[in-house]
Amino acid sequence: QVQLAESGGGLVQPGGSLRLSCAASGSIFSINTMGWYRQTPGKERELVAQINSGDSTNYADSVKGRFSISRDNAKNTVYLQMNSLKPEDTAVYYCTANVRHGYSSGTRRYWGQGTQVTVSS
User: How confident is the model over 40-53, as pLDDT tens digits?
Assistant: First the structure.
């Protein structure tokens, strides 16, 4: 099993910044893609940003130029730097990781518990 521990959410004013962190622990051989999704009540969970093992990144159009995803492979940790935050960024943010448990095994996706980000004056 793998656990994903998120941190860094909170309340911030419009235009402000937050940095989310997500550390994976447990039975890990390697981690392929790591990413962040977000969800608001009544809406489907949507991709915010993702980064693969080669550091190639992908962003939702709504956050391009404002958010930046990075990872520290030695710490099995992914980060999301969020700048110029807007009220519409308010959501629960979930970390995800595609984990391999062994050399010849496939990958399995794990999710964190979510961290609330609220952008309000």
Answer: 999 999 999 999 99
